[in-house]
Specification:
- Keywords: ATP-binding, Coenzyme A biosynthesis, Cytoplasm, Kinase, Nucleotide-binding, Transferase.
- It is an enzyme of class 2 (transferase).
- It is found in: Cytoplasm.
- With 200 residues, the protein is an alpha/beta fold.
- The chain folds into two domains: 113 residues, Rossmann fold (3-Layer(aba) Sandwich); 63 residues, no CATH class.
- Helix content is 50%, strand content 12%.
- Strands 2-3-1-4-5 form a five-stranded parallel sheet, sandwiched between helices.
- Helix 6 crosses helix 7.
- The structure holds dephospho coenzyme A (COD) and adenosine-5'-triphosphate.
- Dephospho coenzyme A binds next to helix 2, helix 4 and helix 5.
């Protein structure tokens, strides 16, 4: 069984992934893989270099994520181009990790994919689990976590489908607007409905 954990930026996906991992379910994390596929020498690295030029790299050749973020979160066409370059490589690695985990005997896995719904990929998972947060809380947490301005934070939030709309695509929703403990209890309750018992 594959649980597709999704949400919006700073909506508490990592928090839920941590709980799921603590309960013994391995996480295949698209954000982590997105960092690996752009390492120097990888095919996507070369594509980024020829499309965006040197301005998105540090002096030592590694990707300047802040610089690339500034470009793509304020320009939808460039973001679409980036997605086209990166998503096939991310997807390929996710499938590879999935096969490995199944071969190791895992029966339940978690795919942590922020853009699962936007990319129309909900069919690759059995359940869509949405990490939801109220909009004002999301903005506040994002600004605090990334030490970003309101404008920067909003540009990132607006690069994604609004969470209110994403709710319609979810099989289950954890509202992370409150305390962490409440989130954990909601998550355990959902798992129980799916036939998985865990200790809260
Ligand atoms: C633009 C990049 C370099 C900015 O890096 P940065 O370290 O600042 O952010 P990070 O990678 O930690 O992403 C934070 C969050 O931003 C959101 N986000 C990332 N990429 C995108 C995107 N293309 N569109 C909308 N939201 C996005 C996600 O919610 C993600 O969890 C990076 O996000 C990236 O490479 N994005 C393209 C790959 C991608 O689509 N990743 C999402 C997983 S499929
Ligand atoms: N229930 C909560 N109460 C208070 N703070 C929380 C709660 N859940 C998450 N946070 C905080 O909000 C921020 C965003 O949460 P988290 O990093 O889990 O989101 P995310 O969806 O994984 O984000 P991203 O997609 O941007 O990586 C973090 O700083 C986290 O510590």
């Amino acid at each position: 069984m594959i649980i597709g954990l999704t949400g919006g930026i700073a909506s508490g996906k990592s928090l839920l992934a941590q709980y799921l991992n603590d309960w013994g379910f391995p996480i295949v994390d698209a954000d982590v893989i997105a960092r690996e596929v752009v390492e120097p020498g990888k095919p996507v690295y070369k594509q980024l270099q020829s499309f965006f030029g040197e301005e998105i790299f540090h002096g030592d050749g590694t990707l300047d994520r802040k610089a690339l973020g500034r470009i793509v979160f304020s320009d939808q066409e460039k973001r679409d181009q980036l997605n086209q370059m990166m998503h096939p490589a991310i997807n390929e690695e996710m499938m590879r990790q999935k096969e490995d985990l199944i071969a190791q005997g895992h029966k339940t896995l978690v795919f942590d994919i922020p853009l699962l719904v936007e990319n129309g990929r909900t069919n690759i998972v059995d359940y869509v689990l949405l990490a939801y947060v109220e909009e004002d809380v999301q903005l506040k947490r994002l600004m605090e976590r990334d030490r970003s301005s309101e404008e920067e934070a909003l540009s990132r939030i607006r690069s994604q489908m609004p969470l209110e709309k994403k709710r319609n695509h979810a099989d289950a929703i954890v509202d992370n607007s409150g305390h962490r403990k409440t989130s954990k209890e909601q998550l355990a309750h959902i798992l129980a409905e799916w036939g998985i018992d865990v200790n809260v």
